[in-house]
Design brief:
Order of helices and strands: EHHEHHEHHEHE
Radius of gyration: 15 Å
Distance between the termini: 32 Å
Strand content: 5-15%
Helix content: 55-70%
Strand order of the largest sheet: 3-2-1-4-5
Largest sheet: 5 strands, parallel
Structural class: alpha/beta
Mean pLDDT: 95
Number of strands: 5
Number of helices: 7
C-alpha cells in the first residue's frame, strides 16, 4: 500500500525546529503524520529556505549560532522526501505568474503538491489567502 503524502513549506519546518507561535500546533500535526505513516514531501528548495531562515534569525539576533545549528541538525534528521520533476520549474513559473508573485519560491510548493495530488501545509497567511480559492488541498496552521 502506498503511503499518504503531505507537502510542507519552510514556515512549517521552521515552526517545528524552533520556538515559534505555531510550534505546538505544528509539532502535534507532525506527530500525527508520523504516527499515521504519512510521507512528508517538499521541493528541494526547502533545504535552502530552512537554512536561510535560520541564518536570518542568527543575523538579526533572534537565535544564537548554536541554537540555529541545532535546529538545522534537527531539520536534517527529519524524514522528508525531496520532490524534483522536470516540469516543476515550468509549473511553478506559471503559478507565480497567475498570482503575480514577485518570486516563484511559494509557487514551487504549490506546484509540488498539485503534481503529487496531496495536501500542502503552510503557516504563511498571505500565501494561503492568495491561493486558497484555486488550491483546494491548501491547508494553513493557525
Amino acid at each position: 500500500m502506498q503511503r499518504s503524502l503531505v507537502c510542507v513549506d519552510a514556515s512549517i519546518i521552521i515552526s517545528l525546529v524552533t520556538s515559534e507561535a505555531q510550534s505546538q500546533k505544528v509539532l502535534e500535526l507532525w506527530t500525527k503524520w508520523m504516527r499515521e505513516d504519512v510521507q512528508v514531501v517538499a521541493p528541494s528548495l526547502l533545504d535552502y529556505e530552512v537554512t536561510s531562515a535560520l541564518r536570518r534569525k542568527v543575523f538579526h539576533g533572534i537565535m544564537s549560532y548554536e541554537d540555529a545549528r541545532r535546529s538545522l541538525e534537527t531539520f536534517s534528521s527529519l524524514d522528508i522526501e525531496f520532490f524534483d520533476h522536470s516540469e516543476l520549474s515550468l509549473r511553478a513559473y506559471d503559478i507565480a505568474s497567475r498570482y503575480n508573485l514577485p518570486t516563484a519560491y511559494d509557487a514551487f510548493y504549490l506546484a509540488s503538491a498539485e503534481m503529487l495530488g496531496c495536501e500542502f501545509w503552510t503557516s504563511d497567511k498571505k500565501l494561503y489567502n492568495t491561493a486558497k480559492g484555486d488550491f483546494h488541498n491548501l491547508r494553513q496552521i493557525g
